[in-house]
Amino acid sequence: MNVEQIYTGCLAQGAYYIESAGEAVIIDPLRETGPYLKKLAETGARLKYIFETHFHADFVSGHLDLARETGAQIVYGPLADPDYAIYSAADGEALRVGELTFVVLHTPGHTMESSTFLLRDASGKDYALFTGDTLFLGDVGRPDLAIKQGEVTKEDLAGYLFNSLRGKIMPLADDVLVYPAHGAGSACGKNLSKETFGRLGDQKRTNYALRADMTREEFVREVTAGLTPPPQYFAKNAQMNKGGYDRFDEVLGRGNRALTADKFEQLAESEDALILDVRDRADFAAGFIPNSIFIGIDGQFAPWVGALIVDIKQPILIVAPAGREEEVVTRLSRVGYDTTLGYLDGGIAAWRAAGREVDTIETISATEFATRVERGGVDHILDTRKPTEFLSEHLEAGENFPLDYINGSRMQELDREETYYLHCGSGYRSLIAASILQARGYRHLVNVEGGWSAIKDTDLPKTAYTCPTKIDQQAVDRAVIAVL
């Protein structure tokens, strides 16, 4: 028996490859099939099943392309009704893979079709549980992504989740391994662990949602408390996973095209394309194509694309580090942004060589920022971190302006004639925010490189800080409402 977790840090997502006696199953694969096909070729195994734990909202699964390329069956549990052929497994049904058995456990709550897959070894012993978004390490799946107006509420889904956990998962032995679909960094839960797998017994002892003495009412209240609005692309990705999508090789063929500066500019105008610059943030700040948006490939790239580019069919042109263009197209497709038109051949150097205009964003060190604050020359500070980060510690003069909600109405409250200093935790998110604001006509922007971690190391007096001793959930809820 071979059980391998294939973890993708940018999405905090775990796919799984399990092989036994020449047969294999893949659980929750990512969009591109190449890594899975390579693994199958190396082991010589035949892919028998592709298990989908639910209609994923935070990424586009590779199940359709993988099924076409291998002939494997796509398997969902009860209540899934996609627009393509699947094997709909019954609750409790056993499926054989080599010498192994997978038992399908219908565990509604995160979504109504959510199922987990219990792996039994060749001797019939319960070995591992692939929980999808039903159970994470440290948390459970959020119950607000599959609500239907007038039909099912987040409280209803939380109640189903309570029953699923107590009736299907918690009765299993403590030594069963838990392999979830996500770890820390995913927006599919509130308190996910940095660990990517663990023992069920540990979760029974430490996971707040699995307390043995917890009532249904307490569970519903705690699981639904403090849920921020999900990223706008979640519903769109879920629909793609349910309804189908273009083949990945077609998406890659369209997007991985080298364009001259002339052709790049022509497409930007004729297709109303968004120019997405994914280079290092220092390189971007020093010179970029006017009106382009920065989202660095070496940060939480795909989730920020999904959160900030509202139209999932938006035509996109890429400015990327040399040799990483295909990677960018691939990572965009993982969250459903399939309308990439190509990339600037030769990058920003080619743009400059063609005599085109270049824009910049002023970037200063945390030390210089502190000096300007002490001199009284800083009137507006935009802290682009999440409300919870802001509440934990921030500058007294700072205003919370979370990047997550930058496309909301609060942008209109800013004065285009005023100068705004932006910071986040490190400088990544604040530069994204600055690029968006500058593209919308805000020209007096200063990004603080190093962000909050660097600001705290300056000589700013502690009286400039607000640091509450306790953050209660009501404070978080009020902060979220305030920035929406």
How far is it from the N-terminal to the C-terminal residue, by CA? 49 Å
Beta-strand proportion: 15-25%
**How many DSSP-defined strands?**
24
CATH topology of the largest domain: Metallo-beta-lactamase, Chain A
Which second-level CATH architecture of the largest domain applies?
4-Layer Sandwich
GO molecular function, one term: sulfur dioxygenase activity
Organism: Neolewinella xylanilytica
Pfam families: Lactamase_B, Rhodanese
InterPro entries: Metallo-B-lactamas, Mito_Persulfide_Diox, POD-like_MBL-fold, Rhodanese-like_dom, Rhodanese-like_dom_sf, RibonucZ/Hydroxyglut_hydro
Please sum up the structure shown.
The chain has 484 residues and is α/β, with parallel strands linked by helices. The chain folds into 3 domains: 2-236, Ribonuclease Z/Hydroxyacylglutathione hydrolase-like (Metallo-beta-lactamase, Chain A, 4-Layer Sandwich); 246-353, Oxidized Rhodanese, domain 1; 362-483, 3-Layer(aba) Sandwich (Oxidized Rhodanese, domain 1).
Tell me what you see in this structure.
- Keywords: Hydrolase, Metal-binding.
- Residues 269-360, 375-464 form the Rhodanese domain.
- Pfam families: Lactamase_B (PF00753), Rhodanese (PF00581).
- The chain is α/β, with parallel strands linked by helices.
- The chain has three domains: 2-236, Metallo-beta-lactamase, Chain A (4-Layer Sandwich); 246-353, Oxidized Rhodanese, domain 1, CATH 3.40.250; 362-483, Rhodanese-like domain (Oxidized Rhodanese, domain 1, 3-Layer(aba) Sandwich).
- Helices cover 31% and strands 21% of the residues.
- It has 17 helices and 24 strands.
- Strands 1-2-3-4-5-6 form a six-stranded mixed sheet, covered by helices on one side.
- β4 (46-51), α2 (63-70) and β5 form a beta-alpha-beta unit.
- α3 packs across α5 (216-224) and α7 (248-255) crosses α11 (325-334).
- The longest helix has 16 residues, at 154-169.
- The chain is globular.
